[in-house]
Amino acid sequence: MRTNYFKSNILLAACLLVLTVSVNAQQSTSSTNSYSSDGRNGKSRITINDDDKTYHMEFVDDKLSFLSVDGILVPQEKWSDYKKIVDNAIAQMKKDREQARLDRIQAEKDRDQARLDRIQADKDRQQAMKDRAQAEKDRDQAIRDHSRADKDRDQSLRDKEQSDRDRIQADRDREQALRDRAQADKDREQAVRDRAQAEKDREQAGRDRVQAEKDRAQAAADRKLLNELTDDLVSDKLINSAADLRLLTLTPTEITVNGIKQPDAVHKKYQDKYTRFAKNSLTYSSNGKNRNIQMSGNDQ
């Protein structure tokens, strides 16, 4: 909500911005322009001082609606006499509006960067606080170390030996730290790859859900179509009832009912009416409790 508020204010300010520009005239040594625009109603006003003349123009949606020279109104039928200076004014206004648009885009980028900088600054301040706390601890330890050194000079030699060992260990620790950083870089790269893969997996899951819906819908349609086919088998007296159907095959070349191949005329009838089953080589089986439908074609 705060970002939208800033954007609205910037857009309104840009629409009401009064711009003053200086441009080189093609026929005279110099000229000065000043204009203002109101983006809410499309009106723009511009005053040009050129060759000791003052031109005042008003535009509505970049179309001239008023023109005066040195305070004298110019009738519309004479506007063509000032076409060059009018065209220059329109071109300059369009250029300035485009620059204002680019400035708004850059301002938005600058605000985003400032927000990121503030976040980083907060992190830096927190780290600085930790560093100061650690420095205090280190200074306290240094005081204790100096006091101990004054009291135990004999211990200093052993401390030096220990210091040498500590330096060796520190070198090892730095080497380990380098290896740890390298591993951390690899881990970050792997995390990026993992996120990308996760996104792909989510997209695939979405496609799988869509396909599953299609498959469920098609399965329901196939069951309905099979019931219709079974009713036709009963009507054609190929079986006595739907419960009598134990095995059925319907392929592009034949139809069998309970293991008995049917005449070609019967095959053509069922092939024409149940094209999906025939084209995909339907095999149906039932043991009285479970029903199984299989199709070996590609259109499933």
Q: What is the structure about, briefly put?
A:
Among the domains are: about 1-115; about 220-295, no CATH class. About 60% of the residues lie in helices and about 20% in strands. The protein has helices at about 1-15, 85-150, 155-235, 265-275, 275-280; strands at about 20-25, 30-40, 45-50, 55-60, 65-70, 70-75, 245-250, 255, 260, 280-285, 290-295.
List the helices and strands and how they pair.
Layout (H helix, E strand, L loop, with lengths): L1 H15 L1 E6 L7 E8 L4 E8 L2 E8 L2 E7 L2 E2 L9 H69 L1 H83 L11 E4 L4 E3 L2 E2 L2 H10 L1 H5 L2 E5 L4 E5 L5
Antiparallel strand pairs: 1-2, 2-3, 3-4, 4-5, 5-6, 7-8, 7-10, 8-9, 10-11
Helix pairs in contact: 1-2
Characterize the structure shown.
- Among the domains are: 116 residues; 76 residues, no CATH class.
- The protein is 61% helix and 19% strand.
- It contains five helices and eleven strands.
- Strand 4 and strand 5 form a beta hairpin.
- Helix 1 packs antiparallel against helix 2.
- About 7% of the residues have low confidence.
